[in-house]
Write a structure and sequence with these properties.
- The radius of gyration is 16 Å and the shape is globular.
- Helix 1 (13-20) packs across helix 2 (30-42) and helix 3 (47-59) packs across helix 4.
- By secondary structure, the protein is mainly alpha-helical.
- It is built from 6 helices and no strands.
- The mean pLDDT is 93.
- It has 2 domains: 13-42, no CATH class; 47-107, DNA polymerase, domain 1 (Orthogonal Bundle), CATH 1.10.150.80.
């Protein structure tokens, strides 16, 4: 019998928070409680908005992983986005960076 296939998909902090909020906190272990606490502190938008943002950023030419990184941190300037782009070893023209910034500012 073959092993079940596991699909890996990056999710945003707000999406992870929405998933873990379904857990009964009285039955959650310490790691789950700490994870929920972390996600609550660092979630910067709703799960629905995060999903829309990832899709919109992918339309601008970013990969899903890159879009998730940006949604998780919600940079507030072109310079902050450039730091991410440098880590991805990707050059993005200033016009594209401005479109990305406008997208991030527009949904949340």
């Amino acid at each position: 019998m073959s092993e079940p296939k596991i699909k890996k998909q990056p999710i945003t902090i707000p999406e992870a928070k929405k998933i873990l909020e379904k857990i009964n906190l009285d039955q959650a272990d310490q790691i789950q409680k700490r994870t929920i606490d972390y996600l609550s502190k660092f979630s910067k938008t709703t799960a629905e908005n995060a999903k829309k943002l990832v899709e919109a950023l992918m339309e601008k030419g970013l990969t899903e992983e890159e879009a998730v990184e940006l949604v998780n941190s919600m940079p507030k300037s072109i310079e902050e986005i450039r730091v991410f782009a440098a880590g991805w070893k990707k050059f993005l023209p200033t016009a594209t960076l401005q479109e990305i910034l406008n997208t991030l500012k527009g949904v949340h």
